[in-house]
Write a sequence for this structure.
């Protein structure tokens, strides 16, 4: 679960990481009061989850109130699915750094990445100048050790006078990573002010969905999703992605769904939506169909090859869903695995032709959608 | 021969009295697996089939010898259950559950390495040595998929395994051992760590890996091949080639982040190391045939 | 630093370990009110640090108010150096256990010891029935693990219905051990009530003196010491023990002091007090002499063989102390090590004969104290 | 020959710029110790004598090779400093400071074992290989104590070491290596763990241990002797024989608790294993002579 910048900065503040003065507003009428609080010059920042806000014009600098108004209108006009705007004091920056903590699956450690090339796209630096990224591995049972922080900071070229504050910052950020079961915590840019303070210019935190039960303070709300249907699917625990193609996928098993996704694209057709109802969701065909029917699609393609996720249960669910919801698009099925004979019987009984081969099913779906089979 | 598990391996089942645990324990025994004991705190004295249940692993091991443990426990207890198995000195563990918290998985990976144990999972159907034994849940009754033979299989995806393995069988082969390393972002054992076992297994002529977008495990396989650590024919199928960047594609591990994990990169690495990469599952059988043929020349 | 029972029980309560209802009183006039609060039957418990309070008659059971008064008088008359009395509800006991956590220096782990033979002297059980003590080793980086708690409890023969509460108790006690940098936490007896609860019947906690800087909530107060002089010495950081013999020891280095202690006893003389002014205290001769002079002693014996603790500094300190404080007992010295030539010069200059041999010094001291040299 | 340390051992000093650290570094060099670098965060670029100072161990080791580290840091930083040394791969560490918190010491003992490192201390004067090198503070200018020879010495007490070693020298001997394992309740290396080094050291003919009440280290020495792991003559002097039960006698480690740690028990164990136990320091010399004489027969 990705948090918004304003949420990340609240967490930072609670862990003694300095952040700029800022106010959250919902509409332009609140701008005057916001600027009174944070002062000018200021920065107007769209609170949306997408990356690259700077390039997209969703972060704007303003010298005074009038400019701030103009920039706020600009940001509002560009942002999609935005609930809040942040008005933040402009910081007197001396230098910018990058810092993040993620998981390193090979060592089983937390990995701190830092770079003196802050404020820019870290993926770009990782590709073009990997030597400019300093990596430190922290064993979770041991925690971050002082000498690790020192080595990292000295290697970044931090001035002696800032080592102690930098060490504290690293400990605080590591604390945020651990306490919140984070997949990612990132400060980019980490600003070193001319007055000699480290201040978090931006904040990204992503909480591990599997650990949300340990953190009831975080809950997925509508704001975290691009559309109502994605929000509904998430609440139901069904992996669901929306695209704008022709063929709806309702498959069991992530790997299989990805494969069908590739096949559809390979044959130059396109995916309308991606719904994965395997594992614990295999009996949720009706709910899945309700979600699917909120997309625009030409054909629904159902592919499974299950073990615990029984073919007959899924087939019956599909039939029930069709009876109840009467979808108006054609449905192609390749439902296989445990209970497949019974599944095929159920499908035939409802007038659906049960295919046994995935590729055949994909081709059939594309044909029904009116697409060409160009490989 | 088979790797990790055979019909003699003495298997303990942690969480044996749960619904899935007891159901699949019976299937495992039916398939030939030597299940010697089960553990569920508070349930000592019961039996599942003829398998005795104990409160703790230590208590079970005071009565029976154990070579491997299978964890049928919910994700939030996986870390504690693994530590219990490792503390008792068990060196082979399979963890099935999906949804292990990331920070737990990191600590589990650390603990497993420290203990020198091979811990497979989580988020997997488990491992099966064809015709001999299984730890996990596989529809072994589907004989168009679960057929003994000389192809080693490693997979990150349960559902795709049936699909791809069926193609292997369709081409006239069968499997020696099938190792589901699981779809989590922190698999507790990685492809490249299983590879040496297949390399030294005389019952394995070639290996099929079923990978997907995300992570760097396929690149590590390529690395191992380049170093000459794996010299048998290797065929790979990788799902998610056309997946958009930054979206979690079903599995938590299947995401492209920080510019890493694209299937393009993986294909390039594997092909560069001499592996055969199938564009779709139906190509796996043919590639295996030609790979084995070339290899014999 | 040893805590009193009442302090241990406060800490237990703060960590969700159940303790009986109890009230602390300072004098007998508060007894009525105390009993009104905890009810009868009750237990009167002297709050003193010595062990074996039960055998010493410092814990007394009373059925009603009158008996309680009588027993309170008894306890008061028997207790030395007591500041508080605890009046505690009597618990309906089904079974008693022993449990403690200490350090295991070999493994570097915390060691939980438990026994179903609770309420009695654990050292006695350790000697006579070591198989009745169950030991569990906990790595501090990993913490206590659930299966360790389960194995311990099942091995103790705890009923299934109490495993969950027992597990929680172990986690809470381990928490007390870690959070307080304890050398020892002990519950003996741990009572299992007829109503099915674990209740801490007694509580011993000893905090590591070296870690007290991390726990400013604990401070050594006069109550922790048998005498004013011991308290004063502790505040000064000078190891000091009081005995009732003839010869005062003021030596540098713990090992050396122990050796002199043995020699004095071997020669059938006796030690009046044990003061160790080596290490960081070697320049504190004047303060040391002030402490020593509060004891009754016939002769003062000063033995050192120092490296950092310079002989000349200690000799000068001793001379300064004699000038300032004018002790009326004879002083025998064997001050050696770094700077010994200068030290001997200083001592001679003040009319003291500097001996070079420890045994010779001991013998001389005993002779001056009027003791016989019987080996 | 000598154990752990000789004149070639490349020694790093952590906390080198402190008052004690810089003072004793000069003495160590004067004695012949090969001090190659020092560490104090924030002080990189300085020198102590000719020894360069670095911010961190890692940075020091990017410039010089290091075999052993000596910690001149206050007790509250000892754990962090040790972990820094271990992380950098240093396998020999001596920690001098008195007052390491008990829970820190436990974790340090765990960490040292995990790293396979020999960590000596805390609460010790250190170690000295007579006439060659020292890590710690010893008044080596007292030649009635610090004389090279063929007797290995291990001690829990700094002050008593001078006293007892003087007796060894008085009897006509000298020391090969003197290892101060320290007076803490959790010494990071125990007597019995040093013993094998003396056993295999051709320059050591016999060993003197200077023990005291508290703990079980002397009993472990007896155990090792019984098992035949140490076969050279061993003379022990143990302080605190007449100490009252339950009182801390100076050293935190010198306390009799849970019925364990009495000197009587230790004497019985050592005598039973064939060691010679001196009742007072002045007997050590004579016992050594007769032990060596008997051993030659």
């Amino acid at each position: 679960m990705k948090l918004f910048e304003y949420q990340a900065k609240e967490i930072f503040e609670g862990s003694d990481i300095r952040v700029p003065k800022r106010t959250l507003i919902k509409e332009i009428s609140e701008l005057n009061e916001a600027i009174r609080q944070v002062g000018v010059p200021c920065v107007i920042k769209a609170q949306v989850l997408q990356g690259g806000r700077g390039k997209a014009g969703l972060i704007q600098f303003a010298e005074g109130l009038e400019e701030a108004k103009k920039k706020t209108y600009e940001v509002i006009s560009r942002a999609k699915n935005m609930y809040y705007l942040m008005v933040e004091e402009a910081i007197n920056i001396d230098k910018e750094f990058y810092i993040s903590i993620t998981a390193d699956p090979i060592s089983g450690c937390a990995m701190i990445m830092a770079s003196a090339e802050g404020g820019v796209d870290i993926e770009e630096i990782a590709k073009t100048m990997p030597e400019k990224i300093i990596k430190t591995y922290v064993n979770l049972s041991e925690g971050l050790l002082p000498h690790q922080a020192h080595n990292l900071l000295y290697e970044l070229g931090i001035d002696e006078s800032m080592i102690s504050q930098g060490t504290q910052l690293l400990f605080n950020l590591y604390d945020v990573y651990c306490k919140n079961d984070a997949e990612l915590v990132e400060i980019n840019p980490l600003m070193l002010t001319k007055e000699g303070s480290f201040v978090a210019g931006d904040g990204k935190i992503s909480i591990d969905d599997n650990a949300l039960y340990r953190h009831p303070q975080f809950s997925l709300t509508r704001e975290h999703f691009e559309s109502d249907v994605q929000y509904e699917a998430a609440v139901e625990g069904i992996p669901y992605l929306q695209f704008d193609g022709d063929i709806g996928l309702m498959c069991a098993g992530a790997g299989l769904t990805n494969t069908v996704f590739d096949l559809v694209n390979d044959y130059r057709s396109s995916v309308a939506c991606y719904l994965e109802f395997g594992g614990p969701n295999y009996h949720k065909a009706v709910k899945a169909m309700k979600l699917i029917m909120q997309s625009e699609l030409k054909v629904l393609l159902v592919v499974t090859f299950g073990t615990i996720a029984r073919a007959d249960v899924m087939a019956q669910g599909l039939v029930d869903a069709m009876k109840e919801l009467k979808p108006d698009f054609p449905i192609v099925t390749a439902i296989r695995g445990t209970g497949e004979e019974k599944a095929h019987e159920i499908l035939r009984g409802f007038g659906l032709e049960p295919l046994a081969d995935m590729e055949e099913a994909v081709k059939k779906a594309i044909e029904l959608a009116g697409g060409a089979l160009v490989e | 021969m088979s790797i990790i598990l055979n019909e003699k391996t003495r298997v303990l089942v942690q969480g044996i009295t749960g619904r899935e645990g007891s159901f699949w324990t019976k299937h495992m025994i039916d398939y030939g697996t030597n299940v010697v004991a089960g553990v569920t705190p508070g349930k000592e004295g019961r039996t599942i089939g003829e398998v005795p249940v104990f409160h703790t692993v230590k208590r079970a091991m005071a009565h029976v010898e154990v070579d491997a443990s299978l964890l049928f426990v919910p994700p939030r207890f996986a870390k504690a259950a693994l530590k219990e198995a490792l503390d008792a000195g068990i060196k082979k563990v399979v963890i099935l559950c999906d949804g292990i918290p990331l920070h737990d998985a990191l600590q589990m990976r650390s603990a497993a390495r420290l203990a020198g144990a091979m811990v497979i999972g989580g988020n997997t159907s488990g491992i099966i040595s064809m015709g001999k034994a299984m730890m996990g849940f596989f529809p072994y009754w589907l004989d168009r998929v679960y057929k003994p033979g000389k192809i080693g299989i490693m997979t990150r995806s349960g559902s795709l395994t049936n699909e791809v393995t069926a193609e292997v069988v369709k081409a006239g082969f069968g499997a020696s051992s099938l190792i589901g390393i699981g779809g989590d972002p922190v698999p507790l054992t990685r492809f490249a760590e299983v590879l040496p076992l297949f390399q030294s297994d005389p019952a394995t002529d070639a290996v099929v890996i079923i990978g997907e977008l995300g992570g760097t495990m396929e690149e590590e396989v390529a690395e191992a091949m380049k170093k000459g650590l794996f010299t048998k024919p290797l065929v790979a199928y990788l799902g998610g080639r056309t997946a958009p960047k930054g979206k979690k594609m079903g599995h938590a591990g299947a995401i492209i982040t920080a510019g890493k994990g694209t299937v393009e990169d993986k294909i390039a690495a594997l092909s560069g190391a001499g592996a055969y990469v199938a564009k779709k599952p139906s190509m796996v059988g043919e590639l295996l045939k030609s790979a084995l043929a070339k290899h014999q020349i």
About this structure: Residues 102-115 of chain D form the longest helix (14 residues).
